[in-house]
Each structure stands twice: as structure tokens, then as C-alpha cells.
Specification:
This protein is of the alpha+beta class and 118 residues long. Helices cover 21% and strands 40% of the residues. The chain is built from two helices and eight strands. Strands 2, 3, 5, 6 and 7 form a five-stranded antiparallel sheet that branches. It has a three-stranded mixed sheet with strand order 4-1-8, with no helix packed on it. A hairpin with a 2-residue loop joins strand 2 and strand 3.
């Protein structure tokens, strides 16, 4: 009787632990299909980062001064090789204007690094 109870508890523990995986196979594949932007802000000001596709500008988020932050490029912007450009605009009063990356072609799963100079 005791062996049966231990086996039942072990089976329940295995079932519960196997269901704790928060990332399903489908969402893992979706994450792999996202292009990633790495922003290194070496400037003394916080910046707001946007992605530019043609005349469209989509805000990705804020990067604090002297930090590195990663962003996922929205899936709807990527169709095969897509020409994109990235912009970083200082937040607050800054004598320095915005920084813009060169134009790049990104596909799903690729990564691009954007360094903001001091």
C-alpha cells in the first residue's frame, strides 16, 4: 500500500513539473522568428528608440544613459529581407540632436546592434 502511495505521488509530481514549462514549443518558434535590436547608449542622455520603415515610425522604447537594452522588432514589419532604419532621440534638453542608424536589411531571427555615441 505504501509503495502504491509513493508511486502515485511521484506520478503527480512528474505531471505537475512537466506542465511548469512557461514557454510552449509554439511560442519558442515565434520568439526565434523575431529580429532583435541591441541598443548601446553611450550618451549622457536617455533616448527614445524608434524603428523606421519607409515613412512609418514605430516607437520601441526608452534606453537609459550608459546602458544596453534589447528590443524585439515587431513581427508585422518583417517580410523576408526588410529595409529598416533605427532612430534614437534624446529625452529632455539636449544640445545634441537625434542619432540615426544606417539602413539595414533584416530578416526574421537576425540581430542588429545600434550604438549611440557620446
Amino acid at each position: 500500500m505504501r509503495i502504491l502511495r509513493i508511486a502515485a505521488l511521484a506520478l503527480i509530481a512528474i505531471i505537475l513539473l512537466s506542465s511548469c514549462d512557461s514557454t510552449t514549443g509554439k511560442s519558442r518558434k515565434k520568439q526565434e522568428n523575431n529580429a532583435t535590436l541591441r541598443v548601446e547608449n553611450n550618451n549622457g542622455n536617455d533616448v527614445m528608440v524608434s524603428v523606421l520603415k519607409g515613412a512609418q515610425r514605430i516607437r520601441l522604447g526608452r534606453v537609459n544613459s550608459l546602458t544596453v537594452r534589447y528590443f524585439r522588432i515587431p513581427q508585422h514589419l518583417l517580410f523576408g529581407d526588410t529595409e529598416l532604419q533605427f532612430s534614437a532621440e534624446p529625452i529632455g534638453d539636449s544640445p545634441r540632436g537625434s542619432s540615426t542608424s544606417r539602413r539595414v536589411y533584416l530578416s526574421p531571427g537576425e540581430r542588429f546592434s545600434f550604438v549611440i555615441r557620446p
